[in-house]
Specification:
Layout lengths: L1 H15 L14 E5 L2 E2 H12 L2 E3 L2 H4 L3 E2 L2 E5 L1 H9 L4 E7 L2 E6 L1
Parallel strand pairs: 3-7
Antiparallel strand pairs: 1-5, 2-4, 6-7
Length: 104
Amino acid sequence: MNRVLLGCVSLLASIAGCTSSPPVSTHEELRKFAVPAGDAPTALMEFSRQANKQVLFDFGVLRSRQTRGVEGMLQPSEALRSMLEGTGLVASNVDEITVAITPH
């Protein structure tokens, strides 16, 4: 099932013409983030809540990964880029409110 989900996320990303990392947009509102470093699934769910974005990922693939913490007033794309830096994970925009996280 995890492979199917990851395949769907990859397919969605390809269809949507996603970039390998979300570009910083001047149209994104600054939001207050306080996401501690920790296991990727938990941190990404918290990021999702704070950013008011959907985050798609394969739990099985990300369960052993750690993300960096992020804190402060940031655009969601900046916060996510900082969280994923050095993790081997990349974010791809699916649409305005959805981001897919996959291994690099």
